[in-house]
Write a structure and sequence with these properties.
Blueprint: H1 2-17, E1 23-24, E2 30-36, H2 41-57, E3 61-67, H3 73-82, E4 89-93, H4 98-102, H5 115-120, H6 123-127, E5 130-131, E6 134-135, E7 138-142, E8 145-150, H7 151-157, H8 170-180, H9 195-203, E9 211-213, E10 219-221, H10 225-241, H11 257-261, E11 267-271, H12 275-281, E12 288-292, E13 302-304, E14 307-311, H13 318-328, H14 331-341, E15 344-345, H15 348-351, H16 363-369, E16 373-375, H17 384-401, H18 406-422
Length: 426
């Protein structure tokens, strides 16, 4: 009998506390767990400092910093949500939120967000976290894809140097890389170990959409003319012109930097935040510059999946969690987070800060591109993580390497892709 009573008592405790990792201590103080995916030293430091500042001025609502990792974050969060052990405040990326939002794991923040935060972030930012009419996160950091170029190489070649107001077209970009290549060197190195996001987001400039939502709300994949421009350019640079390095196709962005510094490639397309690694690792005297990505008929438009902060549905202190988000994303604090991650803030006030408009390290080029950033094509697509991993990634990798042609790429993205997405839209 004693054993049964203890078991029953334990069950009650678990029911009361298991719905969230946060809770109230004996002294009445609320505790919230904030899982951050910050990984660069400056970014981790900025996040921890802001948590300490919050705790120093809010003794009744304590935030505990929990270090997470971008590696396999989707699976880690899914496991923690299903196990009732999710952090109260979740750091993620907007293109990873759809399944969590539709699955009921994230809180709808529509009625909880302060007006200051709502009005400071543009509507295009809120689109990235809106699912079925609900708002399931706050987009706070974003980065355009840019070209990191060997400035000396470009200057000596005499090619036109693009600007945010006058970028290269995709055709001109191909001509430039062909002109820069030769003698065992390449005009560009595409690091496409994870090819899907880069391909889809850059394709917006050429009018690519890939995902099409019908009147019934269901999404289908259609690989149309605008979707062909970017993958065809990369394919021809690698397999026809020989102006792009074939060995970097399976590499991550960081993997290309030693070859870039050694003069093997004139340019590397990378996310804006990679500038931090370049500043740290570039040899003394290495002259580099930030250029805008090529543009198509849609101008320098490109898709982004901002980093986001969400509140778990099981968190019993949602108002307190949103109050912490409001503090964390005050304009001055958003600037600190952006500088720590070498990214751009989504907030208008933070983005206008003069520190983000300097020529040094290409900050001004990045901020000039901010007005052209749009929600990534896959933002609201249920089943996107599975489609990306099982269909799009292997198909694009094979196409870029020359193993399959454009027609087979189209067939696999559309036919195999729509079979995957159909399972999430019944």
């Amino acid at each position: 009998m004693r054993t049964r009573i203890l078991v029953a008592a334990l069950a009650v405790v678990l029911l009361l506390t298991g719905c969230s990792s946060g809770g109230t201590r004996d002294d009445g103080r609320v505790t919230l767990r904030f899982q951050s995916l910050a990984w660069q030293e400056e970014s981790v430091e900025a996040n921890k400092e802001l948590v300490e500042e919050w705790n120093a001025t809010h003794p009744d609502i304590r935030v505990e910093y929990v270090q997470g990792s971008w590696d396999s974050v989707h699976d880690q969060l899914l496991t923690s949500f299903e196990g009732g052990e999710a952090p109260d405040i979740v750091h993620d990326a907007s293109d990873d939120l759809a399944d969590f939002a539709y699955g009921g794991y994230l809180a709808d923040l529509t009625d909880l967000l302060p007006e200051r935060l709502r009005s400071d972030i543009p509507p295009s930012g809120w689109e990235t976290v809106t699912f079925d009419g609900g708002v399931y996160g706050v987009p706070f950091l974003q980065e355009p894809r840019v070209l990191i170029a060997n400035a000396t190489w470009l200057r000596e070649s005499g090619v036109r140097v693009p600007t945010p107001g006058h970028p290269w077209s995709w055709a001109e970009f191909r001509q430039v890389t062909d002109r820069l290549a030769g003698d065992g060197k390449y005009g560009v190195a595409w690091p496409l170990k994870e090819p899907v996001s880069a391909t889809l987001n850059l394709s917006l400039s050429a009018g690519g959409r890939l995902f099409h939502r019908g009147a019934d709300g269901k999404v289908t994949v259609r690989f149309e003319e605008g979707d062909e421009v970017v993958p065809r350019t990369v394919h021809e640079q690698v397999n026809t012109d020989r102006s792009a390095s074939p060995t970097t196709l399976g590499s991550g962005g960081s993997d290309t930097l030693p070859g870039f510094f050694a003069g093997k490639y004139a340019m590397v397309p990378l996310g804006f935040s990679y500038r931090q690694q370049i500043v740290q690792q570039a040899p003394e005297g290495f002259d580099w510059q930030v250029l805008p990505a090529p543009a198509g008929t849609g101008g320098p438009t490109q898709g982004v999946s901002p980093q986001t902060l969400s509140v778990a549905q099981d968190c019993p202190y949602k108002k307190e969690a949103v109050a912490f988000l409001d503090f964390l994303l005050q304009p001055r604090n958003m600037v600190r987070l952006a500088l720590g991650d070498w990214m751009l803030p989504t907030g208008r006030q933070a983005l206008a800060d003069p520190v983000l408009h300097t020529a040094e390290h290409g900050w001004a080029t990045g901020t000039a591109l901010a007005a052209h950033l749009r929600p990534a094509p896959a933002q609201t697509v249920r089943g996107y993580p599975e489609w990306k991993d099982k269909v799009a990634t292997p198909a694009l990798q094979e196409y870029y390497s020359g193993a399959i042609g454009l027609d087979e790429l189209r067939e696999r993205l559309e036919e195999d892709g729509n079979l995957v997405l159909a399972r999430y839209q019944r």
